[in-house]
Design a protein that fits this description.
- Helices cover 0% and strands 50% of the residues.
- The chain is mostly beta strands.
- The strands form two sheets. Strands 1, 2, 3, 4, 5, 6, 7 and 8 form an eight-stranded antiparallel beta sheet that branches.
- The radius of gyration is 20 Å and the shape is globular.
- The N and C termini lie far apart (43 Å).
- The structure holds 2-acetamido-2-deoxy-beta-D-glucopyranose (8 copies).
- One 2-acetamido-2-deoxy-beta-D-glucopyranose is lined by residues 54, 56-57.
- One 2-acetamido-2-deoxy-beta-D-glucopyranose is lined by residues 155, 157-158.
Length: 321
């Protein structure tokens, strides 16, 4: 597997998604039967690593270089937007995109840490699944965790209605560092694809490959200068060749009289489906959000080129403690 990952290569990965049934019984001892998933399907994803001249076909690109720590690409960050099909054929009609990234993270062998979102667009499924974990590439079969999912099934007759146990709404403001706005910038590009620098977003079409770290204020209304109720801290990575999609991993850290604690989130914020509302998985929390899970829906409230954007978040928790 490792040798097939050389520049400009294609590899195909077989996915067996077993989603194990979970009965919401006692808080500490969930009864799981790994032999009985409540849902399962088989998918293939196809990755064509950018080799320098295959812009049209490539679906992934290195956004940072490998370090000198070992000969196994240690430290290289690869961003991808891969087609996912039901069979082994690259050119079959994709039922989903796999968008996200992996880091090579082992000095002595090929091993990568993956975090990505399957964004379904098929007659069977609409919505996302968020997946992460260590991919021990030398093993024939590897397991990753499905940490959350969003979206509804188009088949109305089996669409269940769920009622949130807690809801929150607020705005997040992001001012990108451009080399001249140290005082009020709240985010900075820390990784860019070959040929781009850290004070301008890359490729004007999609910003593909830019990795941005942020410490953004949160406010209850849409005014940047309102008293913040907390921070959003983490990163996003532009992960698509067409505008605009970014993979987010971050936490809201709230500090108000009502709420103290953090809310942790992952997922693809993909504008590509032409849907104004996108959904991330809330995978955990601390403090007043101890062990909470749910869905964070977001929409763009204002975008000023690459200088500033504001997102409106509606958080719905379906597991509260
Ligand atoms: C893209 O892939 C197709 C099918 O594999 C191939 O025929 C074509 O030459 C490739 N184009 C480039 C620019 O690599
Ligand atoms: C919708 O879901 C129900 C229950 O799972 C199933 O019986 C039915 O065949 C589905 N209908 C379609 C059109 O897929
Ligand atoms: C940040 O500060 C600069 C310089 O004062 C100003 O030009 C810019 O408009 C500010 N950005 C925002 C989003 O307020
Ligand atoms: C990787 O290293 C090469 C050669 O040192 C350099 O030209 C290139 O810009 C680097 N790429 C990234 C993404 O930093
Ligand atoms: C970064 O790149 C932009 C254009 O892509 C250029 O205008 C700017 O001068 C560059 N900045 C630095 C510090 O190299
Ligand atoms: C939370 O808010 C209180 C009161 O405004 C302040 O004293 C404290 O430093 C804040 N804590 C954090 C972690 O920001
Ligand atoms: C989703 O699927 C529909 C129907 O096949 C297609 O028209 C549309 O372009 C797809 N959207 C994306 C973003 O792939
Ligand atoms: C996000 O979730 C909302 C509410 O369930 C839904 O209306 C919307 O279509 C979802 N967005 C995407 C891109 O799936």
């Amino acid at each position: 597997m490792a040798s097939k990952l050389g520049m400009g290569s294609l590899y195909c990965m077989l996915f067996l998604l077993f989603i194990v049934s979970q009965n919401p019984v006692s808080g500490r001892n969930k009864v799981l039967d790994p032999k009985k998933p409540c849902k399962q399907f088989v998918l293939y994803y196809h990755d064509i690593l950018f080799g320098g001249d295959d812009v049209a076909n490539a679906t992934s690109a290195a956004a940072t270089n490998a370090t000198k720590l070992g000969n196994t690409y240690f430290g290289m960050l690869v961003v991808f937007d891969d087609p996912v099909t039901k069979d082994q054929h690259l050119l079959s009609h994709p039922v989903a995109r796999a968008q996200g990234f992996y880091f090579y993270d082992m000095k002595t062998d090929y091993n990568a840490w993956f975090a990505y979102t399957l964004i379904f667009n098929s007659t069977d499924h609409k919505g996302t699944l968020n997946i992460m974990g260590a991919d021990m590439m030398m093993e024939k079969t590897r397991d990753l965790s499905v940490v959350g999912g969003t979206g509804a099934y188009p088949n109305k007759s089996n669409k269940k209605q769920y009622k949130p146990c807690k809801e929150l709404s607020f705005y997040m403001h992001d001012i990108l560092y451009n080399g001249h706005n140290l005082e009020n910038s709240t985010s900075a590009i820390i990784g860019a694809p070959k040929g781009f620098n850290l004070t301008h977003l890359a490729d004007p079409i999609s910003w593909f490959g830019d990795l941005v770290v942020f410490d953004n204020p949160l406010t209850l209304d849409n005014n940047l200068h309102s008293q913040p109720i907390g921070k959003a801290q983490g990163f996003y990575l532009y992960d698509s060749k067409i505008p605009y999609s970014a993979w987010h991993g971050f936490s809201f850290v709230l500090n108000t009289t009502d709420y103290k604690g953090s809310i942790d989130m992952v997922g693809a914020n993909a504008d590509i489906l032409g849907q104004p509302v996108r959904n991330l998985s809330i995978v955990g929390g601390t403090g007043d959000f101890f062990m909470h899970r749910g869905i964070a829906s977001l929409m763009s409230d204002d975008i000023q080129g690459e200088a500033y954007f504001r997102l409106k978040f509606d958080l719905k928790f379906y597991e509260c403690w």
